[in-house]
Amino acid sequence: MTFLQNITLLSIAGFGLLIPNGMFFYYVFAEFSSFTAVVTNWLAMGFIIDAFMAMGLLAWWVAKNPIGTYTWKTFILLSLLGGLGFSLPFFYYLNKKQLSMV
Predict the structure, then answer these.
(1) How many CB atoms lie within 10 A of CB 8?
(2) Minimal CA–CA distance to 73: which of 54, 89, 87?
(3) What is the pLDDT of residues 13-70, one digit of tens each?
(4) Which residues have CB under 8 Å from 70's CB, separation 6+?
(5) 32 in helix, strand or coil?
(6) Are the beta carbons of 94 and 74 closer than 8 angstroms?
(7) CA atoms of 51 and 40, how far apart (whole Å)
(8) Contact status, residue 9 vs residue 92, Cβ threshold 8 Å
(9) 0.85 exceeded by the pTM?
């Protein structure tokens, strides 16, 4: 991969990690009242279910069509740590960076 492609992927991953997750952590530490409030919020539950479905489908796709040495387990871990906006570009970067080093 070129330097510009590396920087672009890492920038998108950084944005995905800092902005959406920053909002999540702000909510958890500043405004979170109870787990019941989250579970009874239909809009939040819809987004949570959608994100987990997308993560599962993408992990299945990565397992069937590997793009490098890192497996679907790494993709799941990255997704849980930082969401799909972080895990997709960073997982791709890790795999392509690993291949170019060989």
Answers:
(1) 14
(2) 87
(3) 999 999 998 898 898 899 888 889 888 999 989 999 999 999 999 999 999 999 999 9
(4) 91, 94, 95, 98
(5) coil
(6) yes
(7) 17
(8) yes
(9) yes
The domain locations on the chain are 3-101
Report CA Rg, the chain: 16
Distance, in Å, from the CA atom of 66 to the CA atom of 64, rounded to the nearest integer, reads: 6
Return the pLDDT at 98.
65
Under the phi-then-psi rule, with left for phi > 0, alpha for psi from -120 to 50, and beta for the rest, what region is 18? Answer: alpha
Q: Tell me, rounded to whole angstroms, the distance of Cα 91 from its chain centroid.
A: 9
How far apart, in whole angstroms, are the C-alpha atoms of residue 84 and residue 51? 8
Structure tokens at 53: 């479905």
Could you give the 3-state DSSP secondary structure of residue 41? coil
Residue keyed to tokens 């987004």: 47
Contacts by residues 32-37 (CB-CB < 8 Å, ≥ 24 positions apart): none
